[in-house]
Amino acid sequence: MTDLERLADQFQRAFEGDAWHGPSIREILHGVTAKQAASHPIVGAHSIWEVVLHIASWEKMFDDAIHGKPLLPWPSRAISKLDWPARPKPDASHWRKTQRELYAAAEKLRRSIASFDPRRLHEKLPGRDYDFAYAFPGIVQHTIYHAGQIAMLKKALQRSA
Q: Which of 63, 113, 126, 158 could join 70 in a cystine, given CB atoms 3.0 to 4.6 angstroms apart?
């Protein structure tokens, strides 16, 4: 297994399967309703839904960067809207759609990482001053960090029920 395949595997495990860090995002989100996902059980914290939208947005932006589209400047008004997208109406159909989009973006990015040309690892990520070798573990870390947040929010929901 190449290093890129290993990173793609770790990224995938954050979403499904046997993750070393604990439950995968799919496991954590299992049984979470739209109402629960939209609620704010911790004052001042994002909702589960907002975190899911954030993860999916960065997966899409990151995949676009792999394929040459520069990431928007940080910080900027333009990236702020993509960083934390607005949540749609909190109903079951929108919540299912949000989750489908999350998993689709994750799978697309996983494939892009696995098939990435290793000769490009030291190229700068478009729109950033760091290279892909630095960015790939970063997107895995970003996903796992937010998986932990979702797990904590879910526990807070269970305490408030």
A: 126
